[in-house]
Amino acid sequence: MFFRLLRLILVLMLAVSAQPSFDAMAQAIGQGSAQLIVDQQKVVQDLAAKTDGLEKKVADDAEDDAALVDVRLQLEDLSRAALNSALAFRSRLADINNRIEVLGPPPAQGQPQEPAIVTNERGALAAEKAEINAVIASAQNLSIRINGLIDKIGVMRSDLFRNFLAKRYELTDALSPQAFSDAHDQFTGLYKAVSSWLIFAFKFKLQAVLAAALMALGLAAVLLVGGRRLFGRIFEPDPSIEAPSYL
What is the dihedral of CA 136, 138, 144, 149, to 10 degrees? Predict the structure, then answer.
């Protein structure tokens, strides 16, 4: 009887001494998670500010395809950053869910009350999980918004391409009297240049021109005769083959 009473006293002493350590551990974990929440909230806010700037740039550069491509690349980077911010809580959420599962549901009405330390821990975990879910929701909403802007840029670029293909040009300037006058001047200049060259060639280079022409004709005749002798049999059909193959 004495030993049983002594054992009960020791258990009570251990429980009382362990409670502060449990509270300190939970507080340390909560502080670490709180810092992570603050950091990721700052990340999401910065990404949202950058998204606002890029959205304004999309509106300003709606007619510039190259600028739209650059904005789209930046938005894709922001979308990945937003998803990474949401994934930063994966490990902590898993720990919270596992701990809540270990603690179990609160006792139903009429059942004995659970220790206050368990109730406080469950409440703290639920509050922490709610804060984390709020940050994750903000990151996911930002990612959805960014993806919407990316799709919008795709539609804008498609419209720009179609408008470029279907663009109409004014022909008034092309058919104006000034255009005809410029064309006449160009043809006149070409005629003068060609006629001057021909006059010079016939006056001072007639022998050289004739020699070059005769040489060219001679080479052409040699190529014609030689080509016929070398390759004529290849192109002449064989009368004995009624259905020649084309391969």
Answer: -140
**Residue-averaged pLDDT of the chain:** 81
- Please name the amino acid found at residue 246: Y
Torsions phi, psi for 170 (to 5 deg):
-75, 130
Distant-in-sequence, close-in-space partners of 147: CB < 8 Å, separation ≥ 6: 79
H/E segment holding residue 228: helix 206-235
> From residue 123, how far is each of 36, 45, 99, 120 by CA, in Å?
19, 28, 12, 5
Residues 54 and 69: beta-carbon distance below 8 Å: no
Q: How far apart are CA 9 and CA 246, in angstroms?
A: 108
Give per-residue pLDDT as tens, 6-65.
Answer: 444 443 454 444 344 444 444 444 555 788 899 999 999 999 999 999 999 999 988 899
Please give the Cα distance from 140 to 134 (Å, whole number): 10
pLDDT in tens, 71-101: 999 999 999 999 999 899 988 889 989 988 8
Measured in whole angstroms, the distance separating CA 238 from the mean position of its chain's CA atoms is: 63
- Buried b / exposed e over 42-63, threshold 16 CB at 10 Å, is ebbeebbebbeebbebbeebee
Helix, strand, coil shares of the chain, percent, nearest 5, are 85, 0, 15
CA distance 44 to 37: 10
pLDDT in tens, 107-127: 888 788 888 888 888 888 889
Q: Is the pLDDT of residue 186 over 80?
A: yes
